[in-house]
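Repro:
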Amino acid sequence: MENLYGTAVGMKKKKIAYIELETHVEIIESIFDLLQNSSYFEADFIISDKIRSSLSIEKGTLLTATPKSLLKLLQQRHYDLVIIGTVQRHFNLFKEVCRKYKVAIIVHNLNFSRASWSILLKSIWQGQLKYKLKLILKEGLFQAASVYKKADHLLVLDKTFANSSYIFLPVFFNKVDSYPQETSILKIVIPGTVSQEKRNYTHVLRTIRTFKNDVELVFLGKAEKKELQQIKLYEALLPRHIKFKYFEERISPHIFEQELLTADLLWCPIQKYTTSFGSTEIYGQTKISGSIGDAIKYGKYAIFPSFYRTELPFIIKEEYELESQMISLKSSPYDFKQEFSLDKRKIKFIKILQTLIDN
């Protein structure tokens, strides 16, 4: 007998450890939901105190670990697969984990995952000298590429990046059953920390001033320093039909969710290039934008710069007539449930996990 996900009832569950010591809380929460009530898998989420304080999960198997206690914790339990959510520190430690266990690593920066030691060495002089010296002397930064090479599987979170070297792991699913009430005001949300280095806010501020209809633009991230000053300067000059909403303190998960739930669409004016320890990353080519997950989770179109490559039909390239484009998208919502419902994503997710364990 088999259940909905094609697993024989009565079979012994496979044990998975998901490790996250640094960041990407949203991925942990998605995977937690995908594995809820699974008849095939039993998962331990091994996290740091920093991650635990940010999680909204109150139940399930959450195990707190430090870099010093991680190996001992893993040794106490048998795991069929260990998934490492982020490798941006503790390279010596994760290399040892790869040596002892069947490991899959989620790759967030493709170029960094294969960076030479010479590139990493050059990054020392590009700021945060004390921090980077610690990574080299104590945490094995120069071993970064070998950690990825030792892993049994490398995972990516956008199908566009998948190939013979990288396996697509479908962790994002739609959690929204209702959509914002239709109003005459176009509510646009830009998710993420307000930083010109990460997103082109100068373009945003210059463009939004040309809009003719009622608009609320939400900067959904902490705004400070030059970016905050710039927002306030433009706000004082705005016509009455355009409103800004911004935050000068860190945003709570509840406020973040409420703003996204009531958005008509997302605007993601990301910069094309970013760096990771000296490696140049290109959004849409070697690095996925976190706003992809927000768009899927909350069921919103997301407008990206034309350079961003993806096969996802709800990621829309920004056009010259941006206001008309946004109004048109607002009136024709995308049906995320066709592909991104929890049940449909769970089926695909579990099949991938089975493949990772069997190969």
